[in-house]
Amino acid sequence: MSDKPAWLKPHGKPWSVTSQKVVYDNPWINVTEYQAIAPTGRPALYGKVSFKNQAIGIVPLHEDGTVTLVGQNRFALANYSWELPEGGAPLGEAPLDGAKRELAEEVGLQAADWRQILTLELTNSVTDELGIGFLAMDLTPTETAPDETEDLAVARVPFAEALDAAVAGHMPDSLTVALLLRVHHMAVRGELPSHLARLVLQ
User: Fold this and answer.
1) What is the value of pTM for the model shown?
2) In CA terms, which of 35, 47, 53, 87 is 20 to 30 Å from 28?
3) Cα-Cα-Cα-Cα dihedral sign, residues 119, 64, 184, 176
């Protein structure tokens, strides 16, 4: 990664906390209510959702320039979502280990070449959830083992087709959009193997 430009320098005072209490807790998240002081000096009530996993997303990029996607019904928005293979890595687990597990479990793939390519703050106004993105290459099949709540469809499509669908709003999952754009950016900048860059950009 390049050095930060000067305009990224922070300004002002950070938030401060005067009191806090956990108002909800389950195995995946907790919600904490804060009495806080805003950077402007004004008192504020704030609620923060803390996640007990890091979000993991993987771009499985095959030698022919295709990517493997998964489709599933999502609970929170009550919609059907096509997206990259994703999952959660417990906070004590190395993100790469979580990525390897999720790729195998969801789509039955393993990779010889792994690259961590992106870190995202997914909804930084109300949660502390981080998303870690990986590019997986040199792929071979392995056994799947989906979670007992997952009913997944799998599709393998040309990278450009997946990217077009994402930027057109047909795949609005944030990790999917960001990671496909990141891989395209890598191809433009010559950060992919040359034959894969050509396929990604065609």
Assistant:
1) 0.93
2) 35
3) negative
DSSP helix/strand/coil, 154: strand
Please tell me the distance from the alpha carbon of residue 152 to that of residue 178, in angstroms, as a whole number. Answer: 22
Output the six-digit token pair for 40: 């402007």
Q: Cα(104)–Cα(117) distance, rounded to whole angstroms?
A: 19
pLDDT of residue 144: 87
Tokens, residue 188: 């433009």
C-beta separation of 60 from 111 below 8 A: yes
**How many residues are there in the chain?**
202
Amino acid at 159: F
Both tokens of residue 178?
């960001």
C-alpha 183/C-alpha 160 separation (Å) is: 11
pLDDT band at 1 (very low <50, low <70, confident <90, very high): low
Would you say 105 and 89 are in contact if contact means Cβ atoms under 8 Å apart?
A: no
Report which residue type is found at 73. Answer: N
Place of tokens 């393998």: 156
Q: 36 - beta bridge partners?
A: 17, 44
Q: Please list, in sequence order, all residues whose beta carbon lies within 8 angstroms of the beta carbon of residue 51, skipping any fewer than 6 positions away.
A: 28, 29, 88, 127, 128, 129
